[in-house]
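The records we work with from here on pair a chain with its fold. Taken together, the tokens spell out the fold as the letters spell out the chain. To see the layout at work, look at the sequence and tokens printed below.
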Amino acid sequence: MTLHWYRKTSQAACVAGAAIRVLLKGMEPDEALQQTLYSRRHTDNPEEITIDELLTLKETTQARLDEMRKSAGAIPAAGGE
């Protein structure tokens, strides 16, 4: 059996959820990704994830975290001093 995402956007939602867990709860990315996968909000069979799929999710989660951290230090468009 293969991993079944509920929607086309479920994979992106899983990555975003893991990134949020890291930023708000101070979790390690691997732990956050596992908790997000096994919450069963995005897939009904997380135990079927392949090593390649898991590595892709980890890389995407790390890239999303880097992007979020970078944008957190940006100056607002409205100006600011």
Summary: The longest helix spans residues 51-72. The radius of gyration is 15 Å.
